[in-house]
């Protein structure tokens, strides 16, 4: 079972050569930079080691700390694990069980350098956000012609915004307008370009 966090000389901790998880090239450089930018992160997520000081969790963070010339690293020692449990821990510690909620990331986290923090962003993430509104059609001069009699016609209106804040304000305004003028109508918001 885990014990308290200890600060130990880095040469005492050993990289786990059997760890099948690799971070290479640019991704590893991002990890190294993350320790430069936010060194407290290593203390908040210490390296998990077994009784022989072999890294079970945080193997790549240890590798990055070695690259940066750290003299000491924080560890938590997991004692009493069987070899099978150690192997299971290595895999489960590196497995990604969850999924990102891209809507929350786009609306609440878009001002942050998520790519630099190591998040794999979709290719269209950096494209200008747009709003798509189903309407009754568009006239030849580019103005919208709304025909609300009979069956609704499928049509698309695309509006591009300079920032996520402008998009968010527009969504609030559109929602207010639809609620006030067009009871029961709906619209769809799409961030980025539509592919296909």
Give a description of the structure:
Strands 1-4-2-3 form a four-stranded mixed β-sheet. It has a three-stranded antiparallel β-sheet with strand order 6-5-7, with no helix packed on it. It contains six helices and seven strands. The chain is 33% helix and 14% strand. The longest helix is centred in the C-terminal third of the chain and has 18 residues, at 164-181. The chain has helices spanning 25-37, 40-44, 59-67, 83-94, 102-108, 164-181, and strands at residues 6-9, 47-49, 55-57, 72-77, 130-133, 157-160, 188-190. The chain has two domains: 6-94, Alpha-Beta Complex (Conserved hypothetical protein from pyrococcus furiosus pfu- 392566-001, ParB domain), CATH 3.90.1530; 102-190, no CATH class. By secondary structure, the protein is of the alpha+beta class.
Q: What is this structure's SSE topology?
A:
Layout: E1 6-9, H1 25-37, H2 40-44, E2 47-49, E3 55-57, H3 59-67, E4 72-77, H4 83-94, H5 102-108, E5 130-133, E6 157-160, H6 164-181, E7 188-190
Parallel strand pairs: 2-4
Antiparallel strand pairs: 1-4, 2-3, 5-6, 5-7
Helix pairs in contact: 1-3
Protein name: ParB-like N-terminal domain-containing protein
Domain ParB-like N-terminal: 6-95
InterPro entries: ParB/Sulfiredoxin_sf, ParB_N
